[in-house]
């Protein structure tokens, strides 16, 4: 499920995005990473959480590529989003680009809501009627600045959305290969599948046009979610990044385990770290695949040095397994997949209550929680309340007294005793 905000520059897309996602106006910053992080958000409305992307974060600076870029963005949004919010500006009225975008929307089945923005007052709401000229049955006059009309817009949006949030794909294990353009995702998938095509039972463009390959591997049913095939779609540089970011957002949601692929000759970039954060947030398993390992000049300590480098950057996700691979020489391509499956198993693992409590008791004795408002904080017992993804509940007298540092301590102990490599753990503290 995804909503895309589309429109020509300056109509108020990012203002609307901030309004709908409840963010304060982002500080305008020319750093590329900052712009991109602003692009994603979530709308909370009617008891639902709706992921939304603002296409305005990706605007080419050079004027001559501008129109083709916008055209392409519209196509990308149409192919990937479930609903498009097409933003126009009542203070300028209908422009040529608005008309052209409308043409493109007509050719697609994706529902599009026409937003007439900057309708800040009655007079401008009235003026918004001009937008009917684009031929939509309905228009939604709003003011992104002061919030007028956004409730009606969100009600209409909810009606257009699919009923249920898509989750991981049924009982098959969903494995997504994610990474920046050119790190070798397609090559990797081809190396994996091309080696023995017979393991592929079906390749389909099921979810929109993401390529899902149904694979049987070592007696297991897998779905490989390929976020690569984008070069065909996007020709403009900014759009390649936009598209790959959009695709990875979606893939993370669909997967059980994300293989984050990076280029060994480049290292980790902001966007990679963001994908890890995304995976963490959605409680997905993670593997770091360092591709193009054949290009790295190596001695006996190289892998170790690389591991240290990645662990330092990933910091709290240093439990994520790292595999050095080469899609070209096929070195360890199966190891990458095997590791992803191990992570999937870890994510589905259950720890018995008695084993867990033995560990917790020892951990608490070794290092007591700090006192809370003069009271001892006692953790009475713990239990794993769910698996896939794992959630642990700790019952205690003062749940509020368990601070982040102690939570991390317990998480570290859990990992030390039970593994869970590559798996985000959720620890909740409850009153007992
Ligand atoms: P984008 O390029 O489409 O993302 O547009 P921005 O969100 O950056 O907004 C462009 C300009 O329009 C900024 O100066 C905003 O303050 C202004 N703006 C956005 N929404 C509204 C609105 O609802 N009313 C008015 N009066 N101005 C708005
Ligand atoms: P994608 O955009 O992530 O799907 O990347 P591609 O699979 O299209 O690869 C981008 C480029 O990197 C292509 O020229 C590949 O041949 C090259 N490449 C991919 N994997 C490797 C690798 O393991 N080693 C080397 N030397 N080149 C690779």
TrEMBL record:
PROSITE patterns: G_ENGA (PS51712). This is GTPase Der. Residues 1-165, 173-348 form the EngA-type G domain. Keywords: GTP-binding, Nucleotide-binding, Repeat, Ribosome biogenesis. One of its GO terms (molecular function) is ribosome binding. The lineage of its organism: Bacteria, Pseudomonadati, Rhodothermota, Rhodothermia, Rhodothermales. Associates with the 50S ribosomal subunit. GTP 1 binds at residues 7-14, 54-58, 117-120. Belongs to the TRAFAC class TrmE-Era-EngA-EngB-Septin-like GTPase superfamily. EngA (Der) GTPase family. The keyword Repeat applies. Gene3D superfamilies: 3.30.300.20, P-loop containing nucleotide triphosphate hydrolases. GTPase that plays an essential role in the late steps of ribosome biogenesis. It comes from Longimonas halophila. GO terms for biological process: ribosome biogenesis. The keyword Repeat applies. InterPro entries: G_ENGA, GTP-bd, GTPase_Der, KH_dom-like, KH_dom-like_a/b, P-loop_NTPase, Small_GTP-bd. GTP 2 binds at residues 179-186, 226-230, 291-294.
């Amino acid at each position: 499920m995804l909503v895309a905000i589309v429109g020509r520059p300056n109509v108020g897309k990012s203002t609307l995005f901030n309004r709908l996602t409840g963010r304060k106006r982002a500080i305008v910053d020319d750093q590329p990473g900052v712009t991109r992080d602003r692009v994603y958000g979530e709308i909370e409305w009617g008891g639902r959480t709706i992921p939304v992307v603002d296409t305005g974060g990706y605007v080419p600076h050079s004027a001559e590529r501008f129109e083709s870029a916008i055209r392409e963005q519209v196509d990308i949004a149409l192919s990937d989003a479930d609903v498009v919010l097409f933003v126009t500006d009542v203070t300028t009225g209908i422009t040529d680009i608005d008309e052209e975008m409308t043409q493109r929307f007509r050719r697609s089945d994706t529902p599009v809501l026409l937003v007439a923005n900057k309708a800040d007052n009655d007079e401008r709401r009235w003026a918004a009627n001009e937008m009917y000229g684009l031929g939509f049955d309905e228009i939604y006059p709003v003011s992104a600045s002061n919030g007028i009309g956004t409730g009606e817009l969100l009600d209409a949006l909810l009606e257009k959305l699919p009923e249920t949030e898509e989750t991981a794909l049924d009982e098959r294990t969903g494995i997504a290969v994610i990474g920046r353009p050119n790190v070798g995702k397609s090559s990797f998938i081809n190396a994996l599948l091309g080696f023995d095509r017979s393991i592929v039972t079906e390749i389909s463009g099921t979810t929109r046009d993401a390529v899902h390959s149904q694979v049987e591997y070592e007696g297991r049913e897998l779905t490989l979610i390929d976020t690569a095939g984008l070069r065909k779609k996007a020709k403009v540089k900014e759009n390649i990044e936009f598209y790959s970011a959009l695709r990875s957002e979606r893939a993370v949601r669909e997967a059980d385990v994300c293989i984050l692929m990076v280029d060994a000759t480049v290292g980790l970039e902001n966007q990679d770290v963001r994908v890890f954060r995304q995976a963490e947030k959605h409680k997905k398993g993670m593997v770091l695949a360092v591709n193009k390992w054949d290009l790295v000049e190596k001695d006996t300590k190289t892998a170790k040095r690389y591991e240290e480098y990645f662990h330092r950057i990933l910091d709290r996700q240093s439990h994520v397994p790292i595999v050095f691979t080469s899609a070209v020489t096929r070195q360890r391509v199966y190891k990458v997949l095997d590791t992803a499956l191990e992570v999937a198993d870890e994510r589905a693992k259950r720890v018995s209550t008695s084993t867990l409590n033995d560990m917790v008791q020892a951990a608490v004795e070794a290092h007591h929680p700090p006192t809370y408002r003069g009271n001892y904080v006692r953790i009475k017992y713990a239990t794993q309340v769910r698996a896939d993804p794992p959630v642990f509940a700790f019952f205690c007298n003062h749940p509020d007294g368990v601070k982040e540092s102690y939570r991390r301590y317990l998480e570290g102990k859990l990992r030390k005793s039970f593994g869970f490599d590559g798996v985000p753990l959720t620890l909740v503290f409850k009153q007992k």
